[in-house]
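User: Quick sanity check before I run a bigger batch. Here is a single chain. Can you write out its predicted 3D structure?
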Amino acid sequence: MDFLIAASSAMMTSLLVLFTTVVFCFIMLGFLISLGLFVLWIITLIDCIRRDNKNFAFGGKDAKVLWILLLIFFRQITPIIYYLLIMYKKGGEPK
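Assistant: Done. Predicted structure follows.
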């Protein structure tokens, strides 16, 4: 009987360690994704500030101001959209 209690206790400890490890991995994955989005946000914001108005795909003469405001207020998805619409199509560096 004592053996079953000891085995059960060891199994519960193993499951607790496994659960803690899985939770820690998800937390680290979320941290790495948010760090990557932050770096992309900084890169796109600097690119937007340095780029001339005529180098934007659309938006008219106020495209630069519009993109800067969008990048500042919508930090999660706008850097990805900016990268795909502006940076990727124009070859990366502002000219």
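The chain has one domain: 2-90.

User: Great, the batch can go ahead then.
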